[in-house]
Amino acid sequence: MTPAQALRAYCDAFVARDVTKIGSLFADDARCELPLLERPLKGKAAIVREVGIATRALRDMKVELGVVIENGDTVFAEGIFTSEMVGAGTHVDLTPVRADFRFVMIVEMRDGKIARLAEYLDTKKVKPWERQRLYPIARLSPYFQGTVDANVTEFMTYNGMFFPIVYSRTPAEDYLALTERVTMWDVGCERQTEVRGPDALKFADYLATRDLSMMKTGACRYTFCCDDSGAIICDPVVLRPWDDVVWFSHGSADLTLWAQGIALHADFDVTVREPDVAPIQVQGPLSAEMLRGITDAKVDDLKFYRCVVTRVAGIDAVVSRTGWSGALGYEVFPLSTARAMELWNALREAGRPYDMLVTGPIVHRAVEKNVTDTGYHQNSGMNPFEAGGDRLVDLDGAPFMGKAALERVKKSGPTRRTVGLLIDGDLPRLEWYWPVADARGKQGEVRWAVHSFALDRSIGIALVDAGVRIGETVRVTHPLGTVNAKAVELPFVA
Amino acid sequence: MPARSLIERYFGAFAAGDAAAATALFASTGLYEFPLLRPRLVGRAEILAGHRQAFSVASRIAVSLRVVQSNGATAIVEGHLEAHVARDGRDVALPFAAVAEESGGALQRLSIYGDAHPYRLWCDGPVMAIGERSR
């Protein structure tokens, strides 16, 4: 194969997403220099893996080569690449997010195989230039500088703190790092409502819809906290790291103020506060292997929904086997933010051999696994039965906030239900809930919507009238138009 | 002058910070594209102004050319550019490739490919808007 033939074969295989063919073109010790990657790839295996990610990140790819100049074992070519980014939604004006650029590619051959492939292009065309500007209306995470160094581009506010959500990469890169390797998330905004004192567990049980009375030290539970009307305030993970301390590691809601208000006027021997604890999530199949070397406790022995008080990189912390990936992962809760960046940097270093990525929470995967999140101000007035959380409500146990209201809901039956939707076509980013309708009229709203990389299609989670049946076709109206969607059971991916 | 000679001379002039010599290699309607200079520069007046702006903010420029390949009218080069940008107080290290098209012995097009993402533009302000006024 001549250098020009190899270059053309590479381009053809790339647009055809034929990773096997691409692998066959390279020498085992080949080197690949692609400016969209942080460092050169060494070896065929690394090249095949990264090119595989790129081909899943893009679609409708086209390569048009212009001048091609071959001399000996080397070929230089100038070309134009056009494509659409998968799973990135649309721009604000609803045009698709594209990755179009001109490039020069250089291929050097050895013994009929590509020994070096170098590409030159300006990634300013395809990457955001700078991060979103902030205002002093919310707190900065103690890991803020670390996220900036990792090229964060977008934040949202969560519990009065800026929450890094999007980094300068394609959604597919983040998704595949989570499902195949390991990722690290700044979730300093995931605040703890700490209940401390002799009645800590009893008071925690009063706040939660789930019976926590038998919860042992070192255990964790997923639960709802509801107001007195039964509406969900948030759906925290409860940790009991010490005998007399319970943490509600909660979503975006004023749970600490709520708990403090109740504690002030109830007969519990507790103090309630928000401690200086800012967690980091380490999620992915290699997370245990990565944490093993820097955690005093044996993370491999930590069972699902268990926690341990230990040291990570010499820093006192609670480590729990929990997280927002629906698979293997851990949360590290340092007991103070005084050495926050030291912890951050130690985790990044520990992740380096595993090609760990610093990412935001990966919503594409969370929706596939029905691992969602709900906050008081955007939960559609939803109660736990409507959210599909019947198993998280213990009406037979001790009194808890919202119990009477939830008993009434249970007796009469919930008026709404949560279903999955297989939605036709491409989706813009969900910026507010999209209406769901059928022949009877409006039936509810889409609360989550993403591209599923596992199913290679658009999916969503909707809160709909209880009369909507699984298998029924409904209509979803979003900014790109009105499309069909089929109601299905959750989760989308086991 | 063949494309290979033009591209080698161009980068020689660029390394010397000689805007006039670099510009003189272009045809009167030549096209110049360089990722550290945002838009395309068309014609000698714009190309000269762009180079002057670049050299006014950059010093200690060094260019090394690794391989040049040519088919006569077109040449492609792989190289490395380094410079100190006094305005930003930082160094630039830009691996690049460049495509030169020759017509009538002059550069009809010079397109430089490199990743400018880590850097601010060398050229901003009025240089891109001079149009006909400075011709």
In short:
The complex is a heterodimer of chains A (494) and B (135). Chain A is α+β, with helices and mostly antiparallel strands and 494 residues long. Helices cover 21% and strands 35% of the residues of chain A.
Task: Tell me what you see in this structure.
The complex is a heterodimer of chains A (494) and B (135). Chain A has 494 residues and is α+β, with helices and mostly antiparallel strands. Among the domains of chain A are: 123 residues, Nuclear Transport Factor 2, Chain: A (Roll), CATH 3.10.450.50; 135 residues, Gyrase A, domain 2 (2-Layer Sandwich); 80 residues, Aminomethyltransferase beta-barrel domains (Elongation Factor Tu (Ef-tu), domain 3, Beta Barrel). Chain A has eleven helices and 27 strands. In chain A, the strands form six sheets. A six-stranded mixed β-sheet of chain A has the order 2-1-6-5-4-3. A six-stranded mixed β-sheet of chain A has the order 18-19-20-17-9-21. In chain A, a hairpin with a 2-residue loop joins strand 7 and strand 8. Chain B has 135 residues and is an alpha+beta fold. Chain B has one domain: Roll (Nuclear Transport Factor 2, Chain: A), CATH 3.10.450. Chain B has a six-stranded mixed β-sheet. The C terminus of chain B is likely disordered. At the A-B interface, strand 3, strand 4 and strand 5 of A face strand 3, strand 4, strand 5 and strand 6 of B.
